[in-house]
Specification:
Number of strands: 11
CATH topology: Spore Coat Polysaccharide Biosynthesis Protein SpsA, Chain A
Protein name: Glycosyl transferase family 2
Organism: Flavobacterium soyae
Largest sheet: 11 strands, mixed
CATH class: Alpha Beta
CATH architecture: Alpha-Beta Complex
Structural class: alpha/beta
Order of helices and strands: EHEHEHEEHEEEEEHHEHHH
Helix content: 25-40%
Number of helices: 9
Length: about 290
């Protein structure tokens, strides 16, 4: 128990795991890949995983940490979000209550996972009676918006992301609605920096499919470029004002972006995170 367990939901964008898994492999105790056995998305669309991907998994799994969990995660009587929550709970049960349960998507790439693991281990006392002391841990996401010449447009202000918990009482996605502990670290989120065809596939099949005005969003996404992004505002796909401004970072690969991104300017201050954590502690003080 008290292990570092990492789980990924695997679907049509499985190739991105070739970036995501290496960032967490060394510091993880186990890595679980949840795949629908019928190769169905949460909307019931079919996808294919090439055999070459499983060959790649075997080639990088030198410590035999990777385990594949296949089950029926698509249920036509459920909404896409209900299917997502169900899959996450099944995956978490497999990962084992009493461990740190870290769930990531294929398009989320951790910067300095070693430091995050050290932070979690400093909170191991939350694993002694997890159901009665439920918490979720949130680093910050850098959301990549669109690839342009020589670099990428990203959302200027990072967003919180609940990636770890001691007890998987998921309500919406990875959100348990329990106390949040904020962590000063970054995850690069491939998000919507994809081709138009890939975006349409994503929007049609993920847990937020009914919340998006796809046509309106794609029209704006196609219009944004290196010449006009500074003069445009409100870019989020559900509530546009949540992503007010875009910024630019040079580089096209994960390593290049990591080298060129100024973490000190992107991450919130220590004081800001302390205030957020104090507020969460106080908010949930009387709810235990």
């Amino acid at each position: 128990m008290k292990k570092i367990q990492v789980g990924f939901l695997v679907s049509y964008d499985y190739e991105l795991l070739k970036i995501a898994i290496p960032q967490v492999y060394k510091e993880s105790d186990s890595i679980f890949l949840a795949i629908d056995k019928e190769r169905k998305t949460w909307k019931g669309e079919s996808f294919v995983i090439e055999d070459s991907f499983f060959q790649w998994l075997r080639s990088i799994d030198v410590d035999f940490k990777i385990e594949i969990l296949e089950d029926n995660f698509y249920h036509p009587e459920l909404t896409s979000m209900q299917c997502e929550v169900l899959e996450r709970k099944i995956l978490a049960e497999k990962m084992g209550i009493g461990n740190w349960l870290i769930q990531l998507d294929a398009d989320e790439y951790f910067f300095d996972f070693k430091a995050f693991v050290k932070f979690l281990k400093s909170k191991n006392y939350y694993l002694d009676n997890p159901e009665k002391n439920q918490i979720q841990v949130s680093p910050y996401l850098i959301n990549l918006y669109k690839r342009i010449d020589d670099g990428i447009l990203y959302v200027e202000k990072p967003t919180k992301i609940m990636v770890a918990t001691n007890f998987p009482s998921y309500k919406v996605g990875r959100q348990t609605r329990k106390r949040i502990i904020y962590y000063k670290g970054l995850i690069l989120h491939e998000c919507i920096s994809r081709t138009k065809e890939e975006l349409e596939m994503k929007f049609n099949n993920w847990g937020h499919d009914i919340d998006i005005n796809k046509e309106e969003f794609l029209e704006k996404w196609e219009t944004v470029n290196e010449s006009n992004y500074k003069s445009m505002r409100n870019f989020f796909y559900m509530e546009p004002e949540k992503w007010k401004k875009l910024a630019f970072v040079k580089g096209t690969t994960f390593n290049e972006i990591g080298k060129n991104l100024d973490f000190s300017k992107v991450l919130p201050s220590d004081l800001y995170i302390w205030k957020k954590n104090f507020g969460q502690w106080f908010k949930h003080l009387t709810k235990k």
